Amino acid sequence: MEEAHNKMITKQELVGRAREIAPMVAANAEKDDIAGMVSDATIDAFCDAGFMKIFVPKIYGGYEMAPDVMAEVVKEISPYSTSAAWVLAFYIGHNFLHALFPKQSQDEVFAPRGFSLTPGTSAPGYKLTPVEGGYIVKGKSSWNSGSSRAEWYMNGGMVENAEKPELILFMAPASDVQVIGNWDVAGMRATSSCDIAIDGAFVPHHQCVPAVDMLEGRSPGAKLHANPIYSLPMVPLLQCEVLPCVVGAFQGAVREFQKLTQQRVQSHTSEKAAEKQSAQIRLGKALTDSALADDMLRNYLDLVLNMDREEIKTVEARAAIRARVAAITDFCANGVNEVMKGSSASVFRNDSPLQRIFRDINMLRVHGSLDLETGSQALGRVALGLPPQCVV
């Protein structure tokens, strides 16, 4: 497939490849959940398909495509494994973040094979001590999704003794990072979202960017690359990662519920579930709601792609976007919970895809960037002339 990477590729080709890989993802999903990581075979298939190059600039051999391409690829995977889709989305999206760093950083990261597998989080878990040419970094962070195959990490920290507090985002090679194997959770188990620690590693200035520049779409990469996608604010773009995971999970749950309803027979009465009015109503509503969720995703992508490039950088637009994503997540989680109410206790067996989706989406709905109350509060505060209480 490498030959295909050296010529122009279309969205349809990439989505088609995701559709071809999906059965393998489904076959590995239960084992991955138990292992606490997405299998190497699945990650290798994602890499070989070219997915990691979706956002990589063309000068580094990437495809330099729009966010809807990533979303469609991820949505093909997420009905079968929310965890695999999540890790894929983060790997794709964090190559976008690499493209926002200074040119020297991009040269280092993209040179080996044209992309990187990069977990990370923007939370300020690290202390950056200024030294000649950069910083000495110490600290710890959580929620580093995809740590099992990491090559680089992006994290955040505060500069020690700075005149004005400022969050700095930095890239560190995996060789400078200690992975703490503490990922033992109820949902999103296969994401290997481990804690990591950095103890005294040197990070040069060219691997650092002020977070505010990323949040407001004025990073070094925005000035370096002509394509307007690189001037998008960070959070609206990264929400294009997570939203197809959520919507696809809901669609996967509805698909599983439909199969269950067609097959299920009540053990005492031999009544077929498919002949029960309540099951028919629940399935009909679930099908409608999952289609609406897909419409919401497409509407969100249209918004991000077509909003005026200066307007989308305003705090008002970014707060509204964050609140919208949280509301869509809440809608999808409620939809999954409704089909669970109409299922039997047997769907809580560990080999049932439905219980895995149920666990995954209820963990995602309280994720820091997807929580409904947090997103709604941010928009409400901005509407009242107050600063948002969270990153937007």
UniProtKB/TrEMBL annotation:
SUPFAM superfamilies: Acyl-CoA dehydrogenase C-terminal domain-like, Acyl-CoA dehydrogenase NM domain-like. GO terms for molecular function: acyl-CoA dehydrogenase activity; flavin adenine dinucleotide binding. It comes from the Bacteria. It holds the Pfam family Acyl-CoA_dh_2. Residues 246-370 form the Acyl-CoA dehydrogenase C-terminal domain. InterPro entries: Acyl-CoA_DH_C, Acyl-CoA_Oxase/DH_mid-dom_sf, AcylCo_DH-like_C, AcylCoA_DH/ox_N_sf, AcylCoA_DH/oxidase_NM_dom_sf. Keywords: Oxidoreductase, Plasmid. The keyword Oxidoreductase applies. This is MeaA. The lineage of its organism: Bacteria, Pseudomonadati, Pseudomonadota, Alphaproteobacteria, Sphingomonadales. The gene is meaA.
